Structure prediction request, 441 residues.
Amino acid sequence: MENVSYQRFPTVRIRDMKDDVMKFELRDTDASVANALRRIMIAEVPTLAIDLVEIETNSSVLNDEFLAHRLGLIPLISDRAMEMRLSRDCDACDGDGRCDFCSIEFHLNVKCTSEQTLDVTSHDLQSSDPDVVPVDSAGRQADVSGFDPPEHRGILIVKLRKGQELKLRAIARKGIGKDHAKWSPAATVTFQYEPDIHINETLMESLSLDEKREWVESSPTKVFELDPISQQVVVVDPEAYTYDEEVIKKAEAMGKPGLVEIYSKEDSFIFTVESTGAIKASQMFINAIEILKSKLDAVRLAFDTEEADDQFGELGAHMRGGGM
Amino acid sequence: MNAPDRYERFVVPEGMKKVAYERDMKIMNAATFTVQREDHTVGNVIRMQLHRDPSVLFAGYKLPHPLQYKMVVKIQTTSQSSPMQAYNLAITDLTKELDHLKAAFEQEMAQKQADYY
Prediction:
């Protein structure tokens, strides 16, 4: 039986972690894995979003499908999304939205009665499940003064004049970004290669102190530093290097080409993951790993593929030492 | 008017197999695997992992047409192994690598929380 493994052993170091932004370093793995995780975070991590809207009354200035489109784009807190079933896979219901396994129901019922324009926001959406609410309305304190600063007013859906009314029922379902961008939990997901900087020490020695200082300062970002005590040029922050090659051009201008060599390390990546708030950034990454694992599992060959094939079946049996 | 539904990109229709394979008639120890409804996300990962296997002589993937939602992986191995073994081994190794990554990430997260408090 084969017991070789060509597995890699990736390492992670988290630099900064907040609820919606996360910056971390991923090392000792291939660019294809980093890219696959990036693609999955953007397009295949499931979330919840409004998918079906039944409008009872709409006398606003926006037409029905316009409102339905805007409602779909509202991000909903989707911690439950991984466990929920996709609506088309759900056999417990007939898709009308009263099923707890695959859908969440929302109601919106507003009428403008005052002379002032009424802003209909995501705060006016009432959910049937208290865990699934529009992002940034959770944790909102009851307002006493009647005036909310812009960041707390919720996402604006439509504005109503006196006499205009909006009454609808919306159903949120699980989906992935590949189907429609409303289901994408990612604001941006990026990764960059970590730079590998080598200073040619013998060439560096041939520079005077002033030349060294001038060269260090030619970089737009602070990558190098002139150590005052030892009077050596040291690399202080390699990742601040933006691949602008200013230092290389300066070295050539000073008549010392090859003073520094900068390459990007092929197996070291710095990820920046920013979420819309539907899922926490760290949870998004973990979900992406799980989804990549399940995709690979789905793509695996069935056990009997080898035995069924005469040429390889025999070879396999021979390799296994005469079959078990 | 003729556009297929978006879910066609990732939903395998009834009766269609997710992975099908075909031995190459002209070359020894070579096979072509057709994976339905997958794209570069999975294809590139499997291909790069296959490159790490010394018994794999050739490994490549392509998406024959952007409007046909399938992917084709072609593998040729030495006689020490077979394309199917190489393919399954690549997937097994990738799964182990992802398990390792997840554990490392969760450990790092726990440590960050511990440092915070």
In short: The longest strand of chain A covers residues 260-275. Confidence is low (pLDDT under 50) at residues 139-145, 312-318, 320-324 of chain A. Residues 281-298 of chain A form the longest helix (18 residues).
